[in-house]
């Protein structure tokens, strides 16, 4: 696990001999001690991913200079990289509708420091959850939406996201389908949570369909938003057993517990830079 | 858990006052001590299910007479019922193709008595698994199949099933789609196992599709055969975590372990009369 | 799952022919439709447990009369029983110290109605969690404790519990060892949560000991208080995987998530009258 | 996951700047493409662990030369290392007593290639499992033991292990306590499986003790043998839910399923060189 003095370097590039070496050699030369390292080469996609946690051994580690000097070496490999400082709280915006199970969980983890986030705003198409945000002293923006006002509402939402400087948007049970334009803008840096059922069900009232089918498991999937809502790249999934005594409303309740845990875990992975997005899949260095 | 001296009485009928009482009073009157009882009323289907394990307190329990005397009382409630004696090994036929992970697991549980089954025959459309059956001294029927010979092959398979007196048919990775006629014949007393993926995938090479999607869970579903192959009433489901390092062949391997466990669990539930089939759903009194 | 119109009848007694019948016949005679029934006979303890959810079919169900009339029949079996009305919110007192992961979770479930409890008071030996209680408009009693003042403090705590009319006391990470007298008073109607590690560790800093040992799982146990603190009858247990990268503080954090889920589940079982206490063990009709 | 052409290099040493670089630079210089890399620095133990899967890009990879040339570089870091070729089947000896659930599972995985092992011998203090070994054409050595003959028996067992050239000894429910001398000889390269219960129980009949306590989970631990039997360094642990209806014999049966799965997983990790032993703990790069 990362600590107060560990930086994180993440990078990805096409597969080629030397992809690890270009990273690890540079860290060594800069007196950075690697405390945890994971790399993976996707042999089907021919793409390489690496994540290093490290501790600078010299005082006065200069991150600007580090990046400037690493950039040309990375460029040789067509490598994109990101350097994340220790102890940083990522500015986020949380979007919700009326159900608060995910919001309450996230705000608890925010308040107690379990998730290193700085919640800049809560945006909702309903006024219901304002008191919860208020108790945590977080600005709450009520942005109602109708089919007619959707463009304006999304513009307003976007304005708020931009103003807050959010680097991550969390859709914590925001029950509106984003427009293609909005999805495109949020692609890769917004995380959504939705139910996952075996077998999968399309259309309305999925839990009712699952009940009709007599499923014995219900689950949830946390994924990045991309242009294919509810079908974006999967970050993590959770599941729990149910039985015949679970009526549709019980399945929904069960689903809520899984949703909030799965969403929190996805955000944790994202903030720790454990998730890499490539094409339509993710690489997640979940543990160790 | 049932023991060497416990009988099982199962029954179901439309919901109506007295459904429990008609069963429990009769058991009391016949000096049968109930060691475990579960009943459930499905308020949406308006249907009632009950399972009782009991121990006759008088010697010389006469099961024929028990059933004869209970029948008219059950009839008043349009109740169907079944009485299962202790220590009985259910005659089964196992159908396979070439992969043996489920067959090996089932034969192990058969050999060690973990599953109270009497495996009367193994039927396969390939000769590969004959030695495994032979070591367990079980007749192995090689029934090859082509699109042209399907009717004859199914007739032959059916003949074997009938001759063995099988009361349960287990499709332990039998990779042929049954004809509607065969499915109808096996409806409700044949158990199949197949992969379950989140989200669901239709068509060929499901694990490859799941890989493309980057799923983080793979699972398996055990279900009764009905007229809708791979979509019959679910008995139980299993699931395990995977990650980006699982290539399609790794997902398949992972799936195998889940399949054999899930199939064995389904059969165990079925044999213990814990599974009730009603319309397109099951009620499963899994524990306690 | 129980609904707005289902009552719950629970009972236990020594094993004897007719234990089920005495309950189910009475329900039938009183026009009570059983929607869910579980009974279990512990053949080693020779003790019988039964739980019935039922819906009175006649209007004006008189619970007083029901109990008065059932009492003599139960007495014939040395049977103790309890009748629980639908929709009741059980008055509870929550005891905490400084960590709030369990309290926050319980208050969320209280606020949203997921747990049918009426939190009458929060008692703590520290002032830290007062704001959290205040936001939920729950009286917070700061009862500091020292070895010298323990008798007085426990007397004060007991006075508050009595005044509130609490029927359940929840020790949600209350980090004080109760005196034998206090434990005796709370025996069987107070639920505690504590860590569970494989193998078990005694003494201080259990997570540090677990780290030293390199455990791969950490867990939590929810149990009733009895005269043997941390060793009372187990209601439910939870567990999660960890690895070498979890330092002691990470194990503690992981433990917190399991603790709050396990505690909430135990309370849910208790309130639904799914837990029976007999000698030093519990019978829990967890599902269906 | 490793494939037919990937080698594995594992190493460990005291923590010091450059530990990663010395490995990754050497691989690069030798035209070895790293397909998967994990390193971890234990900041409490001040010890470093690394595992690299790699694919030589030049034909005619010379492993002898590779090791000879890497040795002096490793020596500078007091680093021990091991190079494992692709596709190798590790010679193993399996020790059992009378229960066959683990042996049957291991032989199945051996036969189907799921575990890359070459089972050279099965050793037992009982004759019971000879037919199972015979069907797999594996020599079976019956080495009976009494308190008096223990030294001679262990000498005989040791002779067989040595003669077979086994590199891993698997105690698959071998129900004898090894002598300190035998434990010392097997320290670090023999894997044992035993039950794990929450809370832990010492002494005889642990499942009976667990039953008395009313545990809701039972588990198993796979660990290396060292001088402290049943308490050696943990490799992996498994767990499953149980309830009041599980009598001691049911807990034992449940335990068996967990034991065989947990043992197989531990062996898989070991063979893939994912397990590092340091002092009394392990580092396990389980996934990715």
UniProtKB/TrEMBL annotation, chains A, B, C, D:
Domain Formyl transferase N-terminal: 92-267
Location of the active site: 230
Listed EC numbers: 3.5.1.10
Pfam family, one: Formyl_trans_N
Protein task: Catalyzes the hydrolysis of 10-formyltetrahydrofolate (formyl-FH4) to formate and tetrahydrofolate (FH4).
Entries under InterPro entries matching the protein: ACT-like_dom_sf (IPR045865), Formyl-FH4-Hydrolase_C (IPR041729), Formyl_transf_N (IPR002376), Formyl_transf_N_sf (IPR036477), PurU (IPR004810), PurU_ACT (IPR044074)
Name assigned to this protein: Formyltetrahydrofolate deformylase
Reactions catalysed: (6R)-10-formyltetrahydrofolate + H2O = (6S)-5,6,7,8-tetrahydrofolate + formate + H(+)
Coiled-coil regions listed in the entry: none
Recorded metabolic or biological pathway in which this protein acts: Purine metabolism; IMP biosynthesis via de novo pathway; formate from 10-formyl-5,6,7,8-tetrahydrofolate: step 1/1
SUPFAM superfamilies attached to this UniProt entry: ACT-like (SSF55021), Formyltransferase (SSF53328)
Family of the protein in this entry: Belongs to the PurU family.
GO terms, biological process: 'de novo' IMP biosynthetic process; one-carbon metabolic process
Keywords: Hydrolase, One-carbon metabolism, Purine biosynthesis
GO molecular function, one term: formyltetrahydrofolate deformylase activity
